[in-house]
From TrEMBL:
SUPFAM superfamilies: Calcium ATPase, transduction domain A, Calcium ATPase, transmembrane domain M, HAD-like, HMA, heavy metal-associated domain
Name assigned to this protein: Cd(2+)-exporting ATPase
Enzyme nomenclature, EC number: 7.2.2.21
This protein's record includes keyword rRNA processing: no
Alphabetical list of InterPro entries matching this protein: ATPase_P-typ_cyto_dom_N, ATPase_P-typ_P_site, ATPase_P-typ_TM_dom_sf, ATPase_P-typ_transduc_dom_A_sf, ATPase_P-type_domA, Cation_Transport_ATPase_IB, HAD-like_sf, HAD_sf
Location of this chain's protein in the cell: Cell membrane
Membrane topology per record: Multi-pass membrane protein
Renumbered residue ranges of the record's region Disordered: 112-147
């Protein structure tokens, strides 16, 4: 893509966004701005993400701010500063200054048009303490604003309730009764009516404010004062509970992703100094004390400790770190003191990329979300038209029908028709699914990929580093008659003592006995064959089959796969040692579970020899093995599957994200295994498994299925209840009270149901994955 057409992403924070329908209107409005290629509003974390031409991005961001303020004037908009990716700390001050100017320019642009922004109040400063104070002030402000919103609702409920009770219980003349109920109505719902009027003035007619206002004002017009007030009271009560439920969900997701380190202890000539992680350079040394988060990726140069990696990987078992160990930002130090040499600046660290992925995941919406957005856009005008016809046509056509009766039915119809339950709960359900996956060490880059996991029928695995550990290890010791496994390994390890070959190193690593170099004499290596040496005075050969064949020693060929080392002592075959890329402990169980979940074919692709590939394939129980492949050959295999699959079926490719970028991009869903520290994996894949375990893939699929079940439960429940009550209202059976339940009650229940996604517990599934013998119960999860 050329520089002139390159797309740039901008994020706007929408403080004060409490209404899901408002979020939908903002998304539609900003999406219509000329030059915006894509736009998405995340109601849950109050952000707007847009993409536009790089040369016009700042101007369009300012236009987006004006559009938001025009649609919802009460929302305070600020532009998140553009991160200085790839710049070292020495230039970060300039980068953040540029970002600050960017935000200020947008703010000035908005202010010039009569709109306000807080962009310039949230720019970064080089001074860490000032930055921290700024962030904490903002966090407190946002929180208090939300709390203030809830308190205002509570005061309206109490005030409106008191006056309504007075109107119902105290005897008074009709004019005073009307005044009391009108006062109760203004207290309870005056803000709703005012918002409806402002929206109408801006050309935004069909929304929940309009529906509530018309229904309740109509109730007053036909003398149903108590019901008009009651609708507003219960609507506000529902808003308060719905807001509390959504805030709880927001906090739950925020807690799952609360992995951003607040500071770093950097070693300087004057001693240890506490600074912002953004100020650290590559090569700096930082100290992590017990209980502190690791602020940046690095290598341990001093100390040892146990690390809690659960925030990044979902693993509950602490991981040991010692000198030479790689440690990632976001890990929590449990006991010892560690000194790290920094390998990546903060903007390129694992934790920074993970946070960005999860926060931006909602910008890629599932088809179900897109459908509901389109549905709500046409649904509300349609029900207003139907309600109007319901109020006017029957009294004109039916004998004995009165306008007051049918107007009341039409007003009930309007209250019932509000689409809040769908507009709020469905995005919340998908975001909860992404949060639940993150909690289990699975990063899903968008709701579209979460939904696509439900339709997977073909899973294609790379072998090395995905199903296997990617390191050579002794996997079998097969002694000949007259030798034991311990004897054979002792002979081979000492014979290979002076070799620098990786095969020799793996044999030495497997040996647990005591080393005695004096036992080995007359050592020599024969290129292409192996090693000849004297061990304890005996002539020993250790190498390939050709070495023994050359010496006329009869040996039993080993065709089990992997690299085979043949050993002979004094001209007698002593046995074989098999060295291969060790299969991951949960790989076979993961493949077994995938088949239990209904995956049609599990296929393994590898660049290794056919013999090795087929041996691993048999061990794991895959359906197909294709070996000796180059990267382009793997792409061809995916294209072959693409031609075979039925419409709507999806293909997953699972690779290590380093050599498999073309295949990850070609698959419907690219899954990167071994995502820890792998930039290529995070960039190329749609899903990143954070802990190297293939067993996380069936967990991801189960979370996707659970999310889909809950989302469709909400869709069916909301539409079903509304359909029943719309019919009841049209036939005069349902009153305003039932109408309020069908709107407020259904919305609240749908939100609470959506929150169940976050409570996904993978522990039972993990037990099933690691225990294939218990697979019959897997389908019951």
């Amino acid at each position: 893509m050329s520089q002139s057409t390159a797309l740039s992403k901008r994020e706007l924070t929408l403080d004060g966004l409490h209404c899901a329908n408002c979020a939908m209107k903002i998304e539609n409005g900003v999406g219509k701005i000329k030059g915006v290629s894509s736009c998405s509003v995340n109601f849950v974390n109050k952000t707007l993400t847009l993409e536009a031409n790089e040369t016009e991005a700042e101007h369009i961001a300012g236009e987006a701010m004006r559009t938001v303020n025009r649609i919802e004037p009460h929302i305070r908009v600020r532009i998140k500063p553009v991160p200085a990716i790839g710049k070292v700390a020495s230039t970060s001050t300039q980068a953040t200054s540029d970002s600050a100017l960017t935000g200020q320019a947008a703010a000035s642009s908005a202010a010039a048009s009569g709109y306000t922004s807080t962009s310039n109040a949230h720019t970064k400063h080089a001074d860490h303490q000032h930055e921290d104070a700024h962030e904490h002030d903002h966090a407190g402000h946002t929180h208090s604003h939300d709390g203030g919103h809830q308190r205002k609702l509570l005061f309206r409920l109490l005030g409106g309730g008191v006056f309504m009770a007075a109107g119902l219980l105290l005897p008074m003349p009709p004019v005073l009764e009307l005044s009391v109920f009108l006062l109760a109505y203004i207290i309870a719902g005056g803000d709703i009516v005012w918002q409806a009027l402002r929206n109408i003035a801006r050309g935004q007619v069909f929304d929940e404010y309009f529906l509530m206002s018309v229904a309740t004002i109509g109730a007053f017009a036909i003398g149903q004062y108590p019901e008009g007030v009651a609708v507003m009271l219960f609507y506000q009560l529902g808003e308060m509970f719905q807001g509390a439920a959504v805030e709880r969900s927001r906090r739950s997701i925020a807690e799952l992703m609360n992995i951003r380190p607040d500071y770093a202890n950097v070693q300087t000539a004057e001693g240890i100094r506490q600074v912002s992680p953004e100020q650290i350079r590559i090569g700096d040394r930082i100290v992590i004390r017990p209980g502190e988060k690791v602020p940046l990726d690095g290598i341990v140069v001093e100390g040892s400790s146990m690390l809690d990696t659960s925030a990044l990987t979902g693993e509950s078992v602490p991981r040991e770190a010692k000198e030479g160990s790689e440690v990632l930002a976001g890990f929590v130090n449990k006991n010892g003191v560690l000194t790290l040499e920094v390998e990546r600046i903060f903007s390129e660290s694992s934790v920074s990329k993970i946070l960005e992925l999860v926060q931006n995941a909602s910008s890629k919406k599932a088809q179900t979300e897109k459908f509901i957005t389109r549905f709500a856009r046409y649904y509300t005008p349609a029900v207003v038209i139907i309600a109007t016809l319901l109020a006017i046509v029957p009294p004109l056509l039916l004998n004995g029908a009165t306008f007051s009766d049918w107007i009341y039915r039409a007003l009930v119809f309007l209250v019932i028709s509000c689409p809040c339950a769908l507009v709020v709960s469905i995005p919340l359900g998908f975001f909860g699914g992404i949060g639940a996956a993150s909690k289990n060490g699975i990063l899903i880059k968008g709701s579209n990929y979460l939904e696509a996991l439900n339709h997977v029928k073909y899973v294609v695995f790379d072998k090395t580093g995905t199903l296997t550990k990617g390191t050579f290890a002794v996997t079998a010791i097969r002694p000949a008659t007259g030798f034991t496994e311990a004897q054979l390994l002792d002979i081979a390890a000492h014979t290979e003592l002076h070799s620098s070959h990786p095969i020799a190193e793996s044999i030495r690593n497997a040996y647990q006995g005591t080393w005695n170099e004096a036992r080995v004499t007359e050592y020599s290596e024969a290129a292409g064959y192996g090693i000849e040496a004297k061990l304890d005075g005996q002539q020993v050969l250790a190498g390939n089959y050709r070495l023994l064949e050359r010496e006329g020693i009869e040996a039993v060929p080993d065709s089990s796969g992997g690299t085979v080392v043949y050993v002979a002592v004094n001209g007698t075959f002593a046995g074989t040692i098999v060295i291969s890329d060790e299969v991951k402990g949960d790989a076979a169980a993961a493949i077994h579970q995938l088949k239990q979940q209904g995956i049609r074919r599990v296929i393994m692709l590898t660049g290794d020899t056919r013999q090795t590939g087929e041996a691993v394939g048999r061990q794991l129980g895959v359906d197909e093995v294709h070996a000796e492949l180059l990267p382009q050959d793997k792409v061809m295999q995916l294209e072959r599957l693409d031609a075979l699959r039925a419409r709507g079926e999806k293909i997953i490719f699972v690779g290590d994200g380093i050599n498999d970028t073309p295949v990850l991009a070609r698959a419907d869903i690219g899954v990167a295994m071994g995502g820890l520290g792998s930039d290529a994996a995070i960039e190329a894949a749609d899903v990143v498994i954070m802990n190297d375990e293939p067993s996380r893939l069936p967990v991801a699929i189960e979370i996707a299925r659970r999310t889909r079940r809950i989302v469709w439960q909400n869709i069916i429940f909301a539409l079903g209840v509304k359909a029943v009550f719309l019919l009841l209202g049209a036939f005069g059976i349902a009153t305003m009270w039932e109408a309020v339940f069908s709107d407020v009650g259904v919305t609240l229940l749908a939100v609470l149901n959506a929150m169940r996604v976050l409570r996904f517990d993978s522990s039972r599934m993990n037990r099933l994955v690691t225990s294939p013998a218990r697979d019959k119960r897997a389908s019951a999860i």
